[in-house]
Amino acid sequence: MLGAHLLALVAMAAAIGLGVWQLDAWQTRRTAEAVDLTQRDPVPLADVLGPGDPFPGDQVGQPVDVAGTWVPDSTVLVSGRYRDGVEGYWVVTPVEVGDAAVPVVRGWTASTGDVPAAPTGIADLVGWLQPPEGTGALDDDPTDDVFPQLRTADLVQRLDGDVYSAYAVAQAGVGGLPAADLEELPDAGRFTALRNLLYALEWWVFAGFAGFVWWRFVRDALAAEATDHPVASVA
Questions:
Q1: CA distance readout (Å), 182 to 186, 209, 234
Q2: What count of other Cβ atoms lies within 10 Å of the Cβ of residue 148?
Q3: What does the DSSP assignment read for 170-207?
Q4: Among 186, 99, 106, which residue's Cα sits nearest to residue 150?
């Protein structure tokens, strides 16, 4: 019996330990994906994203150098944006970088009637890289220059040429605008390292099964011993 007890204890301890190890791997990978890049040194936009590349999910918030030319007559506003608790608009003007344009959030404004003229000529700024939005909000008036969200697909219709699958939030307000608040920080996806979590659950189920088999073995052994050696009743 002693050998069976030791074997069961070793199997359960090993399974529980492996489950804890897989859980730690799950948490570590999720934490790594959610690293805040906003305080890193800026890098050239081309080092992070090309004109035809999908947005790299591990680069949300990375500061990038945006160097190019402001696209004239292309400024749009994005509604529902807050700054210091006040609702207003983002002011967005694309910058042509190479053969494509990247939307740049120049800053924030409280009303549509108080927007400074867009800059012209050479653009050279640092902005936090963000993925295109996709909230599903409907545009009540597609003919105006106010959008409910910042989607690349909406800007493509207004620009000649390609548009990056990202936008940049200028770290300092451009053209007399106060800087916009950064909307999105990196977050771990729902399915990040899911396999590690499932492995952890699998090992714990195995530990529970080993404990159940051990309990059944002990119960049956004791029952068999009681049958072979019944206790004599006292008259």
A1: 11, 49, 84
A2: 16
A3: ESS-STTPPPPPP-------TTTTHHHHHHHHHHHHHH
A4: 106
User: Tokens 């948490």 belong to which residue?
Assistant: 27
Instruction: Say how far apart CA 115 and CA 89 lie, in whole Å.
Output: 10
Mean pLDDT of all residues belonging to the chain: 81
* Three state DSSP letters for 67-89: EEEECCCCCEEEEEEEECCEEEE
> Tens of pLDDT along 206-219?
778 777 777 777 77
Cα 54-52-122 angle, rounded to 5 deg: 110
Cα angle value 160/181/117 (rounded, 5°): 45
Sign of CA dihedral 169, 171, 172, 174: negative
The pTM score is 0.63
Per domain, the residue ranges of the chain are 2-33+191-228, 43-170
Mention every residue, 6+ apart, whose C-beta is less than 8 A from residue 94. 70, 71, 74, 101, 102, 103, 104, 155, 159, 163
21 contact partners, CB below 8 Å, separation of at least 6: 200
